[in-house]
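During data preparation, a discrete fold description was generated, and the record follows.
___
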Amino acid sequence: MAENNTAHPSFARWWRQVLFVPLMHSKWLTAAAKARLTAKVTSAERGHRGEVFLIIENHLPIQQAYHMGCRERAIDLFSEYRVWDTEENTGVLIYFNICEHSLEIVADRGISAHVSPTVWRAMCDKAVAGIANQKTEESLLELLDEVGQVLRQYYHLEHDPAGNELSDTVVYLK
């Protein structure tokens, strides 16, 4: 969530991606866990006009890992999955990179006008601390709740509209 979105070239980051073994680190992400996370995205979207989108990725693309950090990757995915393309510019991408133990939140300009980057960073840091304590799913579920609460503060609705602009299904990039 730093202001400077450019990662410094890093052989260490590149090697972490190359040596990462998904089977050893992604066991927690079962079909049931994905279903619970998807249900929590749906729940986090109730009561406001915002859209929440969760992407979990094993590691950065190897060919880009030397030059690209998790923040840059999250911004690229924000664009690729068109999270920015909501009617009121209230899309929020939550990006979790398993290899880097990194969480990033990218919020569209509609919500960024109200919520400071330090608020998003604090939420990510809290979740990362839980992940470090082997509570990955629980930490992501709590983070989704918190994002929903922030969106309700600024884009509250008395009655939820029928539409859903972005899929609630968790995207898992292997």
In short: The first helix runs from residue 11 to 19. The helical segments are 11-19, 22-25, 31-44, 62-65, 70-80, 109-112, 117-132, 136-155. The radius of gyration is 16 Å.
